[in-house]
Amino acid sequence: MMMQKLRRSGELIRYGSKSLINLRPNKDSLSRSVSGFVNHYETKGKHFESNVGNYNTELHHGCLGRNLGMLQQYKCFGSSSASKIQRNPLFSSLDSKDVSYFKEILGDRNVVEDEERLETANTDWMQKYKGSSKLMLLPKNTEEVSQILQYCDSRRLAVVPQGGNTGLVGGSVPVFDEVIINVGLMNKVLAFDEVSGVLVCEAGCILENLATFLDTKGFIMPLDLGAKGSCHIGGNVSTNAGGLRLIRYGSLHGTVLGLEAVTANGNVLDMLGTLRKDNTGYDLKHLFIGSEGSLGIVTKVSILTQPKLSSVNLAFIACKDYLSCQKLLVEAKRNLGEILSAYEFLDNNSMDLVLNHLDGVRNPVSSTENFYILIETTGSDETNDREKLEAFLLKSLEKGLVSDGVIAQDINQASSFWRIREGITEALQKAGAVYKYDLSLPVEEIYNIVNDLRGRLGDLANVMGYGHLGDGNLHLNISAAEYNDKLLGLIEPYVYEWTSKHRGSISAEHGLGVMKANEIFYSKTPETVAIMASIKKLLDPKGILNPYKVLPHSLFSH
Amino acid sequence: MKILVAVKRVVDYAVKIRVKPDKTGVDTQNVKMSMNPFCEIALEEALRIKEAGFAKEVVAVSIGPSQCVDTLRTGLAMGADRGIHVETSSSFLPLTIAKILKSIAEVENPELIFLGKQAIDDDCNQTGQMVAALLGWPQATFASKVVLDKEKHVATVDREVDGGLETLCVDLPAVITTDLRLNQPRYASLPNIMKAKSKPIKKMTVQDLKVDIKSDIEILEVTEPPKRKSGVMVSSVDELIEKLRNEAHVV
């Protein structure tokens, strides 16, 4: 059972007795892999070739110290379902002296060896990825995180930073026996400025708790997502989580004003500014936003929060085809621009799934349509906003862009509409096996991949599309009775190649984690990845921070 | 047959209530206001009766400030045929509201008056009963099922009581107040929101209805319930016993 679960993730075999990874792809995977991003670059012809040449030399002499040509590595990425990870033999194994040391600095209670608690911490939310760590550490402050890392670095003990463990790409759980550093005890709000709206807090604050705290002050967090009840702000920052409010307040690269992070050797980088404008040198905090704990552990965050506006309205709309959804988005931006705060979509397959698997959910509109859209407005004048939204929707109804719809009359109704959109993930879990892809694509292409994949998979699986249409972010989910290699083979690398061909991103907001570490080249050029590898080497020379994730395994195998 | 439904505009069910600093009442400035959920259920039931062919018209009534029109529009968008807004800037207690509803009933002559069993702001649970008493009509409160018999001119109502369900048969005209499990109210759809825009809302004043609004109840002070103290984690059984003995004084 467990092996099955691991295999379906396609990439890791924990108990495997196979020796080194075969870095050389077979011909078949090569030919498949090059159809994506490479195509795009081939058009540049010689330029591309020469870049590869340069990189080769760099690599040979430089940072990675390996003499494997980039071109070769580059080709490895196609064999996603074939490549396996080996535990890096350079990492030490935990011994009793290590545990005693940690107990000395953290106290007995915050060094967890209890099997039940470790079982939970080793397993990701989807129960798809499972590590075998024997130790979880619960530091209470930055100083303790620093001491832990300093020690782990000197001992070459690999670690995995963990927050609420709600990640969707296996980034927050160990792959092998990495020591888990959970920042859950670092959960204090440090400061809040009611004039600027800047909140400074520790990394382990739960998103919903921060929202509740801010609510009493009349402010809201600039991000909101389904996992808010468990996820930590440190984890949100480390994965650069997107969520439902991005269309209005922008990404965390804009709203995080500063942070404090601890690098692998225990250095504390105090970048905890609270200024909106600060052009002094390289803005290094951005390296820690979205790097999934591979460059350092985020310990404190300062984030720009927004005044809570009194008037929130929500409409649940039915559209007959994808083109209407797209046209409606353009119209919504034009007509509701200053109050538009969410534009989410789901297809009828997603709706059916929610209706079948979640209790107490009903379709708000009486007719069944192919697409449903949630439009939320947030403003300061209830009467004005409501009239505006109503007028916009009635006009769209007349134009035929909208075939039916309802407007929430109270917060309870609004919650029940959101429940449908936010409940899809939960419904998918209940429906059986699920392959999740989180893609950024040009809005006009978003639904084509769903249709193409439906055609490709036929009766084998139920393909669903939903997501943040306003941000060009599709959550492509393939639900099947059980995980199987044949199905996975049909999905990957097809989905990645399709995305790459349309210049999309294979990870819009979930991150790469262990699931997509090897697929980075579908969205980033070899030159860019090479720089990423140098930065990794600089901040974490021994590679102990969240190993096997984010960057391709081939770069770090020895 | 005509059905009259009273709908009250209240602080939204999901909003955290804040008491005004001067303790004169609840803060409603910049707070989301919605139709009282029990009134929504009352209206839904009236609409279902109409759709089943037992009634010809559903009239929604709201009493309060000018924004009550929004609440009435919601009712019209759900399907009510027309609205009556009794505009007043002061907030009334149940007896005054019941007197106002009585005089509207005398003008409109409905055969059924539906009200929510209580409003979620003051939780009085009195208006329906008072309206029935003032009109001298039978009443069936806390309804969880309503069945009309057009020929015999009666309503059979299941009531939620402490011991279970009680079934009453009341002659029409009657007053029925609705409980949570009676039905699940519908949403306001776009086509119906559009239609609602052209439905009439009649404005009235307390003076028009010649109702004595003098109340013999005075509200002295509104305060928040005492805050619950946060719990503490004890690290050992000894500490627990120590706390139970010396702080809680229970052992």
UniProtKB/TrEMBL annotation, chain A:
Pfam families: FAD-oxidase_C (PF02913), FAD_binding_4 (PF01565). Its EC number is 1.1.99.39. Keywords: FAD, Flavoprotein, Oxidoreductase. The keyword Oxidoreductase applies. Residues 129-308 form the FAD-binding PCMH-type domain. It catalyses: (R)-2-hydroxyglutarate + A = 2-oxoglutarate + AH2. It comes from the Eukaryota. It is an enzyme of class 1 (oxidoreductase). One of its GO terms (molecular function) is FAD binding. Its cofactor is FAD. The keyword Flavoprotein applies. One of its GO terms (cellular component) is mitochondrion. InterPro entries: FAD-bd_oxidored_4_C, FAD-bd_PCMH, FAD-bd_PCMH-like_sf, FAD-bd_PCMH_sub1, FAD-bd_PCMH_sub2, FAD-linked_Oxase-like_C, FAD-oxidored/transferase_4, Oxid_FAD_bind_N. Belongs to the FAD-binding oxidoreductase/transferase type 4 family. This is D-2-hydroxyglutarate dehydrogenase. It comes from Capsella rubella. The lineage of its organism: Eukaryota, Viridiplantae, Streptophyta, Embryophyta, Tracheophyta.
TrEMBL record, chain B:
It comes from Capsella rubella. Transmembrane segments: none annotated. PROSITE patterns: ETF_BETA. Residues 23-213 form the Electron transfer flavoprotein alpha/beta-subunit N-terminal domain. Belongs to the ETF beta-subunit/FixA family. This is Electron transfer flavoprotein subunit beta. Gene3D superfamilies: HUPs. Keywords: Electron transport, Mitochondrion, Transport. SUPFAM superfamilies: Adenine nucleotide alpha hydrolases-like. The electron transfer flavoprotein serves as a specific electron acceptor for several dehydrogenases, including five acyl-CoA dehydrogenases, glutaryl-CoA and sarcosine dehydrogenase. It transfers the electrons to the main mitochondrial respiratory chain via ETF-ubiquinone oxidoreductase (ETF dehydrogenase). InterPro entries: ET-Flavoprotein_bsu_CS, ETF_a/b_N, ETF_b, ETF_beta_N, Rossmann-like_a/b/a_fold. GO terms for molecular function: electron transfer activity. GO terms for biological process: amino acid catabolic process; fatty acid beta-oxidation using acyl-CoA dehydrogenase. It is found in: Mitochondrion matrix. Heterodimer of an alpha and a beta subunit. PANTHER family: ELECTRON TRANSFER FLAVOPROTEIN BETA-SUBUNIT, ELECTRON TRANSFER FLAVOPROTEIN SUBUNIT BETA. CDD domains: ETF_beta.
